[in-house]
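Field log, afternoon session.

UNIT: design team B
ACTIVITY: writing a sequence onto a fixed backbone
BACKBONE:
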C-alpha cells in the first residue's frame, strides 16, 4: 500500500480509550510525521517518508489518479509477493513486486 499525498499529515491513527486498536502496515510506503511511532510490530518492512524528503514516487505527482511509479521510486522492488501476478495495466509482476497497484516499467 502507498499512503502519500500533498498534505503534511497524510496518516493519522487515533485510538479511542477502551476500544480495540489493531492494525498492520506490511511492505507499505507511508508519509507520516514524527507523531506516529512506527517502531512497533504494527509496522513491518515499511518505507517511512517525512517532510521535507519528498522522494519522487510517481511519474507525474500532479496528475490526479495516476499512480504509475517513477524511475528511482523507493516503491520499486519493495513489495510483498501475494499471489497477484499482474498489475492494473495487465503487466506481469516480478518475483519481488513493487509497492502499489502498478509494476514499474521503464
Amino acid at each position: 500500500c502507498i499512503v502519500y499525498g500533498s498534505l503534511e499529515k497524510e496518516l493519522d491513527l487515533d485510538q479511542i480509550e477502551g476500544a480495540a486498536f489493531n492494525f498492520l502496515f506490511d511492505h507499505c510506503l507511508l508519509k507520516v510525521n514524527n507523531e506516529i511511532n512506527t517502531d512497533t510490530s504494527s509496522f513491518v518492512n515499511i518505507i517511512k517518508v517525512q517532510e521535507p524528503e519528498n522522494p519522487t514516487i510517481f511519474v507525474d505527482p500532479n496528475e490526479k489518479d495516476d499512480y504509475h511509479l517513477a524511475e528511482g521510486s523507493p516503491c520499486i522492488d519493495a513489495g510483498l509477493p501475494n499471489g497477484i501476478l499482474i498489475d492494473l495495466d495487465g503487466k506481469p509482476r516480478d518475483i519481488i513486486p513493487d509497492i502499489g497497484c502498478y509494476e514499474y516499467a521503464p
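LOG NOTE: The beta strands are 2-3, 25-26, 29-31, 43-44, 47-49.
NEXT ACTIVITY: expression trials, pending approval
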